[in-house]
Amino acid sequence: MKVPERRQMARVSLRTPLRFRALGVASDKSEHFTEALNISRGGFYFASSAPLQIGTPIEATLRMPAEVTGNPSQEMRCTCRVVHVRNEPYGDGRIGFGAEIEKFQNVSAHERWMS
């Protein structure tokens, strides 16, 4: 049985650097570095070894490509929620996660230098 497509925005298959941390998870306060494997204005898919579950809120910083925004590529900070987990591990032990963007804002040049 084929699962119906739930995405409302077109995804672009390209890799872009991604930095994220789980919000409200007492056991994991660390910042994780990986890359988004596909992206849209509404969400992205990434692989990580972080202990995330469906419903986990995350804060992520990533470069939104021009193909998604229609504007020059820019770094964005997003508040997101994990909406699906693909438990088949990649060769390096990471698993795949889909995140829905709930809110995003541009990251200023000053903030980029601070992080």
Topology:
Layout lengths: L15 E7 L9 E9 L2 E6 L8 E8 L1 H4 L4 E13 L8 E12 L2 H6 L1
Antiparallel strand pairs: 1-2, 1-4, 2-3, 3-6, 4-5, 5-6
Describe it.
- The chain has 2 helices and 6 strands; from the N terminus they run ββββαββα.
- Residues 1-5 have low confidence and may be disordered.
- The chain starts with 15 loop residues before the first strand and ends with a helix.
- The chain has one domain: Roll (Pnp Oxidase, Chain A).
- With 115 residues, the chain is mainly beta.
- It has a 6-stranded antiparallel beta barrel with strand order 1-2-3-6-5-4.
Key words describing this protein structure:
mainly beta; disordered N terminus; 115 residues; Pnp Oxidase, Chain A; 6 strands; six-stranded antiparallel β-barrel; single chain
What ranges have pLDDT less than 50 throughout 5 or more consecutive residues? Answer: 1-5
- Put simply, the count of helices is 2
Helix content: under 10%
CATH classification class: Mainly Beta
User: Within the largest sheet, what's the order of strands?
Assistant: 1-2-3-6-5-4
The CA-CA distance between the termini, in Å, is 45 Å
Q: Considering the protein shown, what is the CATH homologous superfamily?
A: Electron Transport, Fmn-binding Protein, Chain A
State the shape: globular
Radius of gyration: 14 Å
**Protein structure class:** mainly beta
Mean pLDDT: 81
